[in-house]
Request: fold
Amino acid sequence: MPEALRPPVTIRMHAADNVAIVANDGGLAAGTVLPDGLTLVDRVPQGHKVALVAIAQDAPVLRYNVPIGYARQDIPAGAWVHERLLHMPQVRPLDALPRATAAAWNGAPLEGYTFEGYRNADGSVGTRNILAITTTVQCVAGVVDYAVQRIKEQLLPHYPHVDDVLALEHSYGCGVAIDAPDAIIPIRTLRHLSKNPNFGGEVMVVSLGCEKLQPERLFPGSSIAIETVATDPGITRANGHSHQISEAKPDVVCLQAEQHVGFMSMIEAVLASARPHLERLNARRRETVPASELVVGVQCGGSDAFSGVTANPAVGFCTDLLVRAGATVMFSETTEVRDAVDQMTARATTPEVADAMAREMAWYDAYLGRGQADRSANTTPGNKAGGLSNIVEKAMGSIIKSGTAPICGVLSPGERLQHKGLHYAATPASDFICGTLQLAAGMNLHVFTTGRGTPYGLAACPVIKVATRTELARRWHDLMDVNAGRIADGEASIAEVGWELFHLLLDVASGRKKPWAEQWKLHNALVLFNPAPIT
Reply:
């Protein structure tokens, strides 16, 4: 229906809510009469809230049946409810949270779904077959970039079964307090990035030579270690036992080595190192594997008030499907779920998992405190323009991406997944830091929802973009892969879009379809999270 002929539409998330959001493109003018007879006293932009009843000063403003704020003044029925009219609620204390109290989940196993993936020696499965070149320090980035272009132009045509070659470039490695306690975060992140399932177990490293992050420190000993304990690199704890997993020593090209005479000597050394890796990758073929081998990271960016109405609920429905199929799903973005922490700890499979979530929140609270920032710093101008008044409202819409399944694991920044199921991966909300940390955890497929729009993309992993609004999906028709705005339009249900996304994930994982970000090669830089001091 043309928007000019569409009747006024508002969306109320819970029967107890005293506000609803305006769904119409362009918003609704003052004087508009809603179907229930309420007359708007203000113009209300699309995605913004209208008071359904009179709200007294200091009374809670309810959305999702949660107080997202308290009225600074009396708000009449039909008024536009925006951030300037609200006091934000106090942050939820981390003591006395519900711990593993949610009712038993009734998600029946979902069997028979498969995709075509690349089986790796360590048991993981890739959705792409990529040669990644790890860098130990930012100083080598220019050389490696030049070498990668040469590899793509001269070598890659001879290896048709290799999807791409990319450099794991970053700004870390030197000029940092590398022995500081928090330095483990960027170090283990880079270590585990190098082992992402989409890289086929081929680890190739370019080092300068004089940096603080020496290759032996990045990959301790003669093996690449898998570790989840910050104080004990190389050791993993699985089922209560400690063990070390040995793998082939990575190839290292050191640019300061005496045998390199001139720039082109360095380039030829990188190309020579790449050839055997390309040979092995090129010999691989896709094979049919169960959907349980998917490792999906879910994230949102450029969120708006529709994020928690359309795209994120559809992703949450898909999350439940994936968990039922035995797959692994990560949700993240600490500041965006901090105000929903009670929902998270209640869904933990054990009290210990709930305690781990609370510890991650406490760590990040302290991190923000050191920077003299608080959780309200998360909400962006674009979020507010899209109708999100504050971080509490944003959190309620963000957490829905995690679906309803029990949360069985918690990852600190840079740690690697050790078992399947739904995990909370503690990351900053910054899009590319979150994406980088999810890649380090082992993500082989990514789902990214957006309401305002963002051309986000990753070279290491396919990114499926889900639009919250039909207007965005129409305007960015060659950037958005799924239009969840159809839910608000009444043209599709949350379940229908969730199933559509589930099947698209299997097709993309199999290489049968490429999402727009992959087609356009929209590959933003990886960003290591480095809370340690810079020296």
Notes: The chain has 15 helices and 23 strands. Residues 222-246 have pLDDT under 50 and may be disordered. The first strand starts at residue 10 and ends at 11.
